[in-house]
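[SOLVED] Need 3D model of a three-part complex

Original post:
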Amino acid sequence: MKETPLSICEKQTVIQGVKEGQRVDGRSLSEQRKTCITFGTEWGCCQVLLGNTRVMAQVSCSVQVPKSSRANEGMLFINVEMSTMAAEHFEAGRLGQQGIEVNRLVERCIKDSRCIDLESLCILVEEQAWEVRVDIHILNHEGNLIDAATLAALGALCHFKRPDVTLDGRDVIIHQLDERDPVPLTILHHPLTLSFALFNQGICVLDPTNLEERSADGKLVMGLNAYRELCTLQISGDGVFIHKEAVISCANVAASRAVQMVEMLKKSLADDAAERYSA
Amino acid sequence: MGPQKKRLLLSKNLLEMKFMKRTKEKTEKELEDEERQTTFANEITSAMLSHGSKFLMESSYSACENLCFGRMSFKGANPEIEKIMRRLTEPPPPKENSLLQGEKDADVGAEEVSRTMSLSKTVSRKFAKQSLKRGFKRPADDQ
Amino acid sequence: MAEKSFSTHVNQIYLPGDSVTLSKTDEISTVKIVLGPGLRKYGKQILVTKSGVLRTKASPATYWIDCHHKRYVPARGDDVIGVVTNKVGESYKVNIGSSEEASLSSIAFPGATKKNKPNIQIGDLVFAKLLIASIDMEPELVCVNSLGENVGLGVLSTSGFLFTVPLHHIRKLLNPECTLLKSLGKALSFEIAVGMNGKIWIKAKSVKQTIALARAISISEHMNKEEMNKLCRKFVDRQAGF
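Solution:
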């Protein structure tokens, strides 16, 4: 099914509103929507609500033969699924342009920033290693899928625990979950993305809704961690013109937000752990 | 020889006249209904008549819930819409008051007659033209 | 599933496939009974086709299922807001959020003739009535009544704003008992078009006011009458403070 086209009046109102510093949903230009992180009953299941955008990530693992080029490392695989219920124009089994963009940016932010210590996932050099797989399901699309997807993926990876492994000579023993406590992944830092919609005259709008994304001229995606280190940067859109100063000011906004978001993620993880302990 | 055949048929020329508009619509509708009945007469079974008559299907919520008309205007934002809103919400006029009823049915209302027939506008326009020629401006135009 | 009787189980939740039997009085009476959305006649049974709450109304006796929907299915007689996407010959293609685009003839406007057609651009919004809405056919829209008169349908100005709400919220807003729009109208001058397909177009004097109204309307989705009145009072106070 086709996506409902954008009408002239929607685009005009969004642009006019942004010029006056007013957003359609009442937020200020550098304000995010309400973010909510919840965890499932299984290890490595995380659901993120960003306004009405809803994304779920599930981490799973299996033992595989490591790649010959990286014989002493485990593997990380990221997969994005777009549910047809999320938006009318999503097709089952096909990612489309938007899906590929989300997949690639999550990969760049999480995999390429080396936030997971892959060496600790190696069991036996050249023979056995853990492959960690992150399945990201887009459940409802109300704009800014990238931020929600990276947050969900990171939350799921932080929450995930793999079965413990011991070596007896060259024999590998994988312990059942009731036999030995599972071990969490080694996470070196927490990278997140923060997206801005770019409007004419260099106005940047944080956490755009679907309507804002479609009305905007372009998009700026920043991947940052809590140490204010930049992991990813992408500017997309046709003929987008943006000042150097604007990028730097966006980066500053994003960095302070990233610190808050990571804190929030850690708090949700701690709350979940406490709940599990008491239960 | 059904009763339809005997029915008085009005002449086409008469029906074309403006005051016959309502009658024309009525006769057209009657004719259409008749035509429909004759075309589908052999396809309607007795079961359809006995079963179908009890239930009517309605797929629209607006009819079920008596919803209001969705186009609205408030505080003079769009006078045309407000006129339509008033027409929709106003209860039908009481029938006893035949004088007022006649007024409502008339093509041109008394108010409109008084507006268009009165000389006040013409005179004022004339006056405005004259004053323009003389290089004066009315204070209301002065903005 | 045990069969439920109509009159005693009004306002109860039904699931698709449940069957409903008529109450004794309705069974005997010869008055016509209207089956609204979510109910259909299947042989001698009346089956439920949508999950929701059974509602009823007297004169004419009407029964329907009230349910939560986000995606629109065209129904004959509904007034909807659509985006013009294309012009094909004498008619426009209009997206009304249904699975198929609707067509709107360029002479289905008040006062329009073959020579005098309305000026419509691609991307414009139209408020129109569904004349044909059948599962097998392309929906067809009109902007006039059967007499060719202007009844408030037509092209909407591009200076307004369009937003989408769930379909049950539209029904709540247009319910004659709902006072939200009227009370907002007492505070501010604005015009609005509410489409049964979940789209609301609104235009006030400034963009700021338009956005404020749109937000007030969309957050009232789960509010009851009391809360709506409170929202209106708060809204009026805030507008006065501008």
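Edit: Chain B has nine helices and two strands.
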